[in-house]
Write a structure and sequence with these properties.
CATH architecture: Orthogonal Bundle
Strand order of the largest sheet: 1-2
Radius of gyration: 20 Å
Strand content: under 5%
Shape: globular
Mean pLDDT: 92
CATH topology: Lysozyme
Number of domains: 1
Number of helices: 10
Number of strands: 2
């Protein structure tokens, strides 16, 4: 019996060691990503002078979309040109991304929807806001976002079989085991932006 307990203690210690290692790696990677995103604070601040909350939200979207890498850091090409890969610089991406975000926020406000509905619409497009209104909702949630992704957006873009793909992001794993619908945008977008906003705020509290 003593040998069994000793073996179980060693196994528990090993599991804890592995979990600590995974968490440490995740925290280090997140820190590096946030640090990279923060290099665009000046460009964001220029568009949101005196509005720290709006600045942090835009940076959280950059963290969500690209981790601050590449030229289209806010993945805003499609909202301007109707297709991806047309943005030539991070500055252009941020200007268009903020313009798109502002348009979604204005539309959401006009429809009596909450601020997070606008964030989900940043990913889905403005038709999502009309969808929420038709559903009688005043705010977005994961269930409504998944319904729109599954039943409206993905079929519209060719996924008529409700095909899914693995999405191994921590928020997705915790919410549904890690999946999204092909061509259906990201129905967990708000959850991910909220988490990334906390990372941005935490980083800035120490800098």
């Amino acid at each position: 019996m003593k040998r069994l307990f000793r073996w179980l203690r060693r196994l528990l210690a090993l599991v804890l060691f592995i979990c600590l290692g995974v968490f440490s790696y995740y925290a280090y990677q997140t820190y590096q990503h946030v640090k990279q995103v923060e290099t665009y604070r000046h460009e964001v601040a220029a568009l949101y002078p005196q509005d720290k909350k709006a600045q942090q939200l835009a940076l959280a979207i950059i963290l969500t979309e690209s981790k601050g890498r590449g030229t289209d850091v806010m993945q805003s090409s499609e909202s301007l040109y109707g297709t991806t890969g047309q943005i030539n610089s991070p500055e252009e991406s941020i200007q268009q991304g903020v313009a798109h975000l502002t348009a979604m926020q204005t539309q959401a406000q006009d429809l009596g929807l909450d601020e997070w509905s606008a964030i989900q619409a940043y990913n889905f497009g403005g038709e999502y806001l009309n969808f929420l209104k038709e559903q009688g909702a005043t705010k977005t949630n994961v269930s409504l976002a998944e319904k729109y992704s599954k039943e409206v957006l993905s079929p519209l873009l060719g996924n008529t079989t409700q095909a899914q793909y693995r999405y191994l992001q921590i928020s997705a794993i915790l919410k549904n085991g890690g999946y999204l619908y092909q061509n259906g945008g990201n129905f967990l977008y708000v959850e991910i932006v909220k988490l990334n906003l906390k990372w941005i705020q935490l980083y800035e509290s120490f800098h």
